[in-house]
Amino acid sequence: MKRSSPAKPFRGRGMLGLLAVLVLSGRLPAGEPAPLGVTASSTAERSAPAGAADGRRFDLSASTYWQGEPGETSWWWEIRFAAPRRVGAILQIVGDHPRNFRNAPSRYAWQCSDDGRTWRDLEETRQTNDRRLFRLHRLSEPVAARYLRLRIDACQGDRPTVREVELFDDLGADVAFPDWCLSVKTTEDPTLDEGKTDFVRLLDELPDWRHLAVQEIWLGDVNEAFAAAEPRPLCAFLSGNFLPWCKRTREPWRGLQEVLRRRNLPTWAACGGAQGLLILDTVGVDSPWDCPFCRDLANPRIPVYNEIGHKEIGACGEFDKCIAERGIYKMRKTADDPAFAGLPEVFDAPESHVGQMAFVPDAWVRVVEGGPGALTKNQCLRVRDRYIYAAQFHIELPGAPENSRRIASNFLRLAKQYGGYNPEAPPVAPPPPAARQSADTP
After folding, report:
1. Which residue from 413, 397, 406, 364 is spatially nearest to 266, judged by alpha carbons?
2. CATH class of the domain defined by 9-168
3. DSSP-derived pairing of the beta strands 180-185 and 236-238
4. Superfamily holding 180-418
């Protein structure tokens, strides 16, 4: 939801620079109370309290952020103003990793005070298990704060990090923020990679999207409240996964199920992530899941999932006994879907799977099928009236870089046109059937 009221943020020059201006000029900048100091309960080496208010939102070089000392039970970061300063909204950017929620406040609240001794919690800002790198807090009504403090009672990691804080006068401030997306890890292990994942590497290769910020996150930390918080994400990319569905823990998928069923967030899911979307949309997390090796064929638990075929009957997860598609395969467009604009009717894409999407659910439409030589029929499905895609192939893997970059760029453009996470967006037009090049095209 976009707010259009004018806003006056506190940002840009940095606390220390502004203090120097005050000393040299002997006066306050017109229009807003100046900060007289930035302090913290403790400060780790290489960081500085003033670094969290220097206007450099995403910088993690020395002294451009504040980080508390490890081993403490609570921390605080505080601004003191020369006179009460109106605050209607607070933007915060946290964590000491460019993409992962690492060493970041998880349980906290912003507070205000008239004298620096008696503090009042701003309840709208209270978080008990935050996982957001970027969060905008809008207050229910403005406060006049002489002192403003972030009180932190727990963090992810052994110390909290605040990269940047910006204050806005108005409750409805139209806060400019760059496009950003989620990269969701859908495996059982919640540990995030320190380096760049496959989707991040792909996004780095898109010339028109080099400004795109990314938060990597485990699927168990995603839910509708996370996706709906401001600043809202442009879209989400879902990774593949490896365990058979009968061995998966279903509960971590509950939040993603909620996001999918609301249909508010443009999404691109690959391979196991794609299969997961269809399982969530047809069966959900409250019913047991199975796999073809342990399945009651007369009563499959997740009929929307099967496997290409089997060389011999094995135990659940014995994928070496399954027929696989690995390498570059031909895809064929079955719909004129804008995510595949600019590609020929038959195009190459990387594959690495034994499981597949067995049929097209009622709310979905097939937009790509297997081309000549491919064994999998349903290669990419889309929610009929949304930009939510379940692709069996992997645009994030090497092998067909030009096609992968085109598809990713097209999808991001569609997500941008849709408005990113957007509960107010009307349904989009379903894609029309693709025009065949000729009647005898293989």
Report:
1. 413
2. mainly beta
3. parallel
4. Class I glutamine amidotransferase (GATase) domain (3.40.50.880)
